[in-house]
Design goal:
The structure holds 2 protein chains of 2 kinds. Chain A is mainly alpha-helical. Chain A contains 19 helices and 10 strands. In chain B, helix 4 packs across helix 7 (138-151), helix 6 (107-116) runs antiparallel to helix 7 and helix 8 crosses helix 11. In chain B, 44% of the residues are buried. The chains are: A mainly alpha, B mainly alpha.
Chain lengths: 552, 287
Amino acid sequence: MMTQKVTDWVDERLGIAKGGRSSLNKIFPDHWSFMLGEIALYSFIVLLFTGTFLTLFFVPSSHLITYHGPYKPLDGQKVSEAFASTLRLSFSVRAGLVMRQMHHWAANVFIAAIVVHVCRIFFTGSFRKPRELNWIIGTLLLILAIVNGFIGYSLPDDLISGTGIRIAFSIVESVPLVGSYLAFFLFGGNFPGNSIIPRFYTIHVLLVPALIVALLAAHLGIMYHQKHTQYPGPKRTNRNVVGTVLWPGYALEAGGFFFITAGVLAALGGLVQINPIWLYGPYIPYKVSYAVQPDWYMGWLDGALRLMPSWEIVAFGHMIPNVFFPAVLLPGITFTALALWPFIERKITKDDRVHNICERPRDNSWRTSLGVGILAFYVVLFFASSTDVLANTFQTSLNFVLWFFRIALIVLPPASAYVTYLITKETQKNTAAGQRKVAMIISRDETGNYSTVDAEPAEDDIHPAQSPVPVPEEAAYLHHNGLVVGSEEQELVTVGDSNGSFTRSLESELPPQRSGGSGVFRVPRSLPGSQGGFFGGGPRRRGRGQRHGDQK
Amino acid sequence: MSLFQSFPRAIRSGGAALAVTVLVGVLGFVIFYPSQAPTASVPVAQPSTGPSSITFSQHATAPAITYHNPSKTLVPEGRTLFVENCASCHGVNAAGSSRAPNLQGLGAATIDFWVYTGRMPLADPTVQAIEGHPRFTRQQTLAIAAYVVSRAPGGPAIPDVNLGVASLSEGQSLFSTNCAACHTITGVGDALANNVYAPSLYGVGSTQIAEAMRTGPGNMPRFGPGTLSNFQVASIAKYVLYLQKPQDPGGLSLGHVGPVTEGFVGILLGLGGLMLFGFWIGGRAAR
């Protein structure tokens, strides 16, 4: 076969069969919450594709030109080239607007997925040894994503985002001692200047994406190397991974999920308007619009700015600008504490063991309660970002909304932590909580007595409540070495027997069986229906739910 | 067992995902595509006046706003209406009382604005007057204005805006400078301070817009002739009317309130929808 020849040719020179085979056989555990990071990853890929398209038309320049384009309400006005090119993207470039909107929606979903992913990792204790490094990398990715989101949002140079840059300038200025130097260094002079748009552009399309790609590679590489965590369950131990094999199972699921993510983002980009900059108009420093919010991921910082009382704090004879506390100190503490959390928790628990099994949130009351409390703090800040819109929507006083959030910021975190603590304690007692309910058949005999028996699982039930069929030692060994076991007939037989789990012990990683010095695995002729080489081996045409079961 | 079911679940998921993606993509493209057309016309209040890129010289040829006081013949009717509906607070001679301000010299435009937007008669004097259905017909409103003007002359008369000579672009620029700081750049309005708000500009006519600028109702500043010319006022009115039905491509607009609604859609619909798909693919942990 041609494929066979090509792969053999490549393998004899690069020796990829061994690594390739074991990579394709890599097991990934299945759980919906493990897909959150994937949403972020795929959104990021969509961001790269759509962003590349946008760079073809966007002009990163503050140079003022007279706008003469299809959007008549701005005809004849002086606008920056950045703004004019964004208008051109939106009105004149074919598919330009849908690309811009997809890019913006993808950014919103990207960061949302990261945040929920972080919550999943936190509440299941997946950051514990040996995954502290990946937690720190993840924190850096979150920071970079937020920073790049804000910068990208600012690039069109419209009235709303320009106000955001103005606020950012003041925030940088508020840093004691070095603030004004820092702000002038970043903006190339006083606000607004002509440098910030081109500088933001370079940061947005080159610097930060490169950092994100590098850290993402490390993030995934470490995850791959350390193997994914899994939830406790039958046959799952701290030293194995139960789940779906990479090829042809998990890779197809992941590929399908990428298309779903791209599809949802394309649907949002095509169907739901985001950031109609033509209605906002160009940014001119003396103009301002009310109801200016940043994109959602900056909301908690905006909310903190809104809720901060107008205190003037004087230290060492110098007034520390009020803005410094909510906009510099708060994110500083937030991200430092977030990055160091595995070590903080280690200090408290003195737990130095390796954890490959996720902890169910209810099983760790104090961490879950603390996490919910802290989360409540940021959720209140997030909602406080929309004080004016909420007051207007619910036709109530702005001051009332402001004070509501100020009080909620203090009351809600401990209250929600306490309620969470009670819930976790309660659910710990009930071991069946959250478990899959088994259908029951209720029958009544002649004497009038009722009795119940468990119903048979439905034919299409993908999670039959059965325990997995253990893999015989021999089969596991052969499978691991890229040797297919069993014939097609046997595969069909084993489908119904297993419940979708395949155990592979990390301890049983035996030395590979080499044939000659080429590194190519040759399949013993005694095993029928098998092929050697890169693509030939392994469980063919098997997704989840078909693992080797009984051998005859 | 059908052929489809005989495929591994992963391939089925992938195939179904592809199908959904293609469907969504096609749907999105089809719905989105028409809005791409750059020929979409800008709504102009008086289409007969030609292109909206109007040069500044044109406002010299035709007056952008003509002001006129209501006919004096309406004064008797206005007096009756005023005594019945207004005098209990503003006094019979519209000179004000401890409950309500003096209306003398405020001009017909002030009376017309407050009455014709339904703000007067006031239901609750302790909160900001709320716009609503007018309690009086157009002629009754003019009659009340005529009566108040007959008590004391002065103040702006009722403006009649000639949108044809106004400039949409000039209006956009002036609106973003003078109005957006309270009414927001899209004109949806917003809460300002303790029970004070800038009302939405949707659903008001050019006369009311000009009256509001010329008289400064409530907390709104007054933009007199020394601040904004008639041409500028007419241009702002033209842009406000445009904002009520703007050129708005890109799909479903989320209320024009900015990133707040966008954030909710992104998190709930975007991430939430994807999490449902993830649940479909990933499933729950085996027990």
